[in-house]
Amino acid sequence: MKETKKVIHDRDQERFYIKTSCGEAAMNYTVKKGVMEIYHTVVPVNLRGRGIAFMLAEKAALTARKEGLRIKPVCSFMAVFLKKSTKYSQLKK
Q1: What separation in angstroms does the CA of 20 have from each of 6, 26, 28?
Q2: Per-residue CA distances from 83 to 1, 46, 58, 63, 65 (Å)
Q3: How far apart are alpha carbons 38 and 29 in whole angstroms?
Q4: CB distance 72 to 32 below 8 Å
Q5: Which member of 2, 3, 36, 60 has the lowest number of beta carbons within 10 Å of its beta carbon?
Q6: DSSP 83
């Protein structure tokens, strides 16, 4: 797999992901009634601590804002991301 740091949004599978040589990091969600429910984030163990989950969360937040959605953070990482972020905290449902 080619190393990349580009976050890809797969609308059909309702997920954001990054392909790396160590595997795939992903954030899964559903959208219902104007709310993006983010329910799972996974990053390969050997890539943790490098900001990969942050990149996924930021792309999700930017997408939600652009599409006029609120975010329900079921995933603990996304909950902390929104709590700490002054830029995106207003998106939390």
Answers
A1: 10, 11, 17
A2: 34, 26, 13, 18, 16
A3: 4
A4: no
A5: 2
A6: H
Q: 75, 77, 69: which is closest to 93 by C-alpha?
A: 69
Specify the pairing of strand 35-42 against strand 70-73.
parallel
Which residue bears the tokens 């900001």? 51
Residue 93 CA to its chain's centroid (Å): 16
pTM of the model: 0.91
Phi, psi of 86 (to 5 degrees): -75, -25
DSSP string, 24-65: EEEEEEEEETTEEEEEEEE--GGGTTSSHHHHHHHHHHHHHH
Per-residue pLDDT of the chain (93 residues; tens, 9 = 90+): 345 579 999 999 999 999 988 899 999 999 999 999 999 999 999 989 999 999 999 999 999 999 999 999 999 999 999 999 999 999 999
